[in-house]
Design brief:
CATH architecture: 3-Layer(aba) Sandwich
Helix content: 25-40%
Protein name: Methylglyoxal synthase
GO molecular function, one term: methylglyoxal synthase activity
Number of strands: 7
Number of helices: 6
Bound molecules: 1,3-dihydroxyacetonephosphate
Pfam family, one: MGS
CATH superfamily: Methylglyoxal synthase-like domain
Keywords: Lyase
Largest sheet: 5 strands, parallel
Order of helices and strands: EEHHEHEHEHEHE
Strand order of the largest sheet: 4-3-2-5-6
InterPro entries: Methylgl_synth, Methylglyoxal_synth_AS, MGS-like_dom, MGS-like_dom_sf
Radius of gyration: 15 Å
Distance between the termini: 6 Å
Length: 148
């Protein structure tokens, strides 16, 4: 089996996954509030608790998957593998182990594999949002398997 790749293109309107571990949820809520106008035109999704809190505190519409520890990270990972999600804002906790650490790792692996922008903190999220590409079509490299 050999690996090859093909180029996929995002739409101008992005589907953005928003996720935060408990100790970082307030930080994500504040970030989304700050950038509400920029985020509003895009399709927002997130893991269960994060999505609910974001809807409550920002009144943006955020479609929720299951809660992270109950399989939400895996659902977001599957959506990335289906090429449905264009970027991942994931404020994961660098100071506390999670019971579903393997799921977190799997999500980050799939996001790297499918070549989507990933922000683990506000600085990176700000860079992504201020990128010229944020409201344009951008290309990404999808790894494929080819029979040799
Ligand atoms: O645990 C998470 C990501 O790994 C987040 O899940 P919740 O948004 O349901 O808290």
């Amino acid at each position: 089996m050999k690996y090859g790749y093909r180029i996929a293109k995002s739409n101008k309107t992005k589907k953005i996954a928003l996720i935060a571990h408990d100790n970082r949820k307030q930080e994500l809520i504040a970030w989304v509030k700050k950038h509400k106008t920029l985020l509003q035109p895009h399709e927002l999704v997130g893991t269960g608790t994060t999505a609910k809190l974001l809807e409550k505190h920002t009144s943006l519409s955020v479609e929720g998957y299951k809660s992270g520890p109950l399989g939400g990270d895996q659902q977001v990972g599957a959506a990335i593998a289906e090429e449905e999600i264009d970027m991942l804002i994931f404020f994961w906790d660098p100071l506390e182990a999670q019971p579903h650490d393997p799921d977190v790792k799997a999500l980050l692996r799939i996001a790297a594999l499918y070549d989507i922008p990933v922000a683990p903190n506000k600085a990176t999220a700000d860079f992504i949002l201020s990128s010229r590409l944020f409201n344009e079509v951008f290309e990404r490299k999808i790894v494929t398997k080819e029979r040799s």
